[in-house]
């Protein structure tokens, strides 16, 4: 896993604005979770988490989460043989990005999809869970949002009696969502780790009253608290794929940990931390948007309560 992380880290450092096609083709990350028979690497959740970790650290806008995790999982778990044979090789080679619409209010009647799906992760191929099926459909309207977090493009999709191609029965929607939560948790843990590193680096360099601010007890305690959060988030993210309960734990903990780490990074940097030129505000924006992407940390805790207390 360390070699995979190092490779992705090096690539994103050298080519932060690389296209999805280049990123996917040169590193093979698009087909990481695609079975070998469809041209993928046949990797598992650990490999996915390693890439997601570095995507989060780099604040990359690559559509890894929605394409290589959600769309691939939806096709692998709910797609029929024809759908897998047609679409998985295309996704594995990075020829297009993709996204998945969950739990929508869209209606599917006589093969026609109608309704609106707000705040969808951006992707060229659109897969939708609707009417008890997984379907493929081309939106009638695709309207990008102007979001606070520019590193995570979101789109409003509208379907107006749009022809939908059935890909298979909806049997694993929650499992697919849980895999997305697990990958997002790895992104969040990676982002939190980078915030901690940036705060520590600055605390060693910035001097006040003749010595580095990192030598002051208040800063030491602040950084120690964040270090504990980051290590705990790492453990939660690595175990997230094991069950729906673990995914909910990771979703709740990693979301809050990233928000706290991003906020404390700004505090340690002081005035420079709130300037547009510094990256600190970008991490806070990503942490804030990530915390609402699937469910909020509070929503994950409510899901956990249902598991623990039975409803």
TrEMBL record:
Stretch forming the signal peptide: none
Gene Ontology MF, one: flavin adenine dinucleotide binding
A Pfam cross-reference name: Acyl-CoA_dh_N
Protein's name according to its UniProt entry: Alkylation response protein AidB-like acyl-CoA dehydrogenase
Domain Acyl-CoA dehydrogenase/oxidase C-terminal: 183-295
The organism's place on the tree of life at top rank: Bacteria
Family, as annotated: Belongs to the acyl-CoA dehydrogenase family.
Residue ranges occupied by any Acyl-CoA dehydrogenase/oxidase N-terminal domain in the UniProt entry: 24-94
UniProtKB keywords: FAD, Flavoprotein, Oxidoreductase
InterPro entries in the record: AcylCo_DH-like_C, AcylCo_DH/oxidase_C, AcylCoA_DH/ox_N, AcylCoA_DH/ox_N_sf, AcylCoA_DH/oxidase_NM_dom_sf
Cofactors demanded by this protein: FAD
UniProt xrefs under PANTHER family: ACYL-COA DEHYDROGENASE (PTHR43884), ACYL-COA DEHYDROGENASE FADE28 (PTHR43884:SF20)
